[in-house]
Amino acid sequence: MRKPIIAGNWKMNKSLSEAKSFAADTKNNVPTTDAVDSIICVPFPFLHALVEDTKGTDLKIAAQNMHFEESGAFTGEVSPAVLKDLGVTYVVLGHSERREMFNETDESVNKKAKAAFNYDLTPIICVGETLEQREANQTMDLVADQVTKALDGLTEDQVKQSVIAYEPIWAIGTGKTATSEQANDVCAHVRKTVASVVSNDAAEAVRIQYGGSVKPANIDELLQQSDIDGALVGGASLEADSFLKLVEAGK
Ligand SMILES: O=C[C@H](O)COP(=O)(O)O
């Protein structure tokens, strides 16, 4: 049985005081980590304060990106070593916004996934197709290719610990959710891909999230699907009440 994992991705939103107030309102009200992993993925400048504010609670703090090198001349970047040192536990890799606007590639996502494990960070690896690709019936091939490239060279154990987020780009921030059946079909294909490139055991263990206009009103139906183990949520994770409803649904 895979443990549900609900992650709120704040993207480039909130001030530090808003972030701290969100953490204060939610950290003691999320389900225990025995039942659900409850995570917020926050901008880099908030990581230190929020890790400190949530210590000893079941609310975990994630970064939204990182570099794959440990240190060096990479102006403006943040290393996995720094994330580990800060007490961060998860990192989002290859979000479509980073692929589209910041030159993230399958190759850099793969390097980052390997680096994450070198620093005990759990990667949340994002994959998903554009509307044009869906309409051209390329979704399954594209997603399988993204998954295969992201996981290349990881050990079976590392793949078992990984989280893969399937986010159809056309459903992000648009209010258009994939139907739960459409979402599950692609998540099942992701799992089948993991079985074929790694192993059946890895496919059984890997957790697969759906992302794209998830909200309290539709999360139950999505989580009832056979291959959806959680959600990566943007807009509906920004308010404490809404985030708490989402993590409750994971129970
Ligand atoms: O990382 C989260 C996704 O991009 C989904 O965003 P959304 O829930 O605002 O559609």
From TrEMBL:
- The modified positions for Phosphoserine read S213
GO-annotated molecular function: triose-phosphate isomerase activity
Catalytic-site annotation from UniProt = H95 (electrophile), E167 (proton acceptor)
Tell me which Gene Ontology terms the entry assigns under biological process: gluconeogenesis; glyceraldehyde-3-phosphate biosynthetic process; glycerol catabolic process; glycolytic process
Please give one Pfam family short name: TIM
Task: Return the InterPro entries for the record.
Answer: Aldolase_TIM, TIM_sf, TrioseP_Isoase_bac/euk, Triosephosphate_isomerase, Triosephosphate_isomerase_AS
What broad class of enzyme is this?
isomerase
> Can you tell me which residues bind substrate?
N9, W10, K11, G173, S213, G234, G235
What are its E.C. numbers?
Answer: 5.3.1.1
- What keywords does the record list, in alphabetical order? Cytoplasm, Gluconeogenesis, Glycolysis, Isomerase, Phosphoprotein
Q: What is its main location?
A: cytoplasm
Recorded catalytic reaction(s): these are: D-glyceraldehyde 3-phosphate = dihydroxyacetone phosphate
Q: Which domain of life is it from?
A: Bacteria
Q: Where in the cell is it found?
A: Cytoplasm
- Give, as in the UniProt entry, the pathway in which the protein acts: Carbohydrate degradation; glycolysis; D-glyceraldehyde 3-phosphate from glycerone phosphate: step 1/1; Carbohydrate biosynthesis; gluconeogenesis
Report quaternary structure and partners. Answer: Homodimer.
Q: What functional role does this protein have?
A: Involved in the gluconeogenesis. Catalyzes stereospecifically the conversion of dihydroxyacetone phosphate (DHAP) to D-glyceraldehyde-3-phosphate (G3P).
Q: Which HAMAP family match?
A: TIM_B
NCBIfam families recorded: tim
The family note in this entry says: Belongs to the triosephosphate isomerase family.
The molecule here is called: Triosephosphate isomerase
What organism does the UniProt record list as the source?
Halolactibacillus halophilus
Phylogenetic classification of the source organism = Bacteria, Bacillati, Bacillota, Bacilli, Bacillales
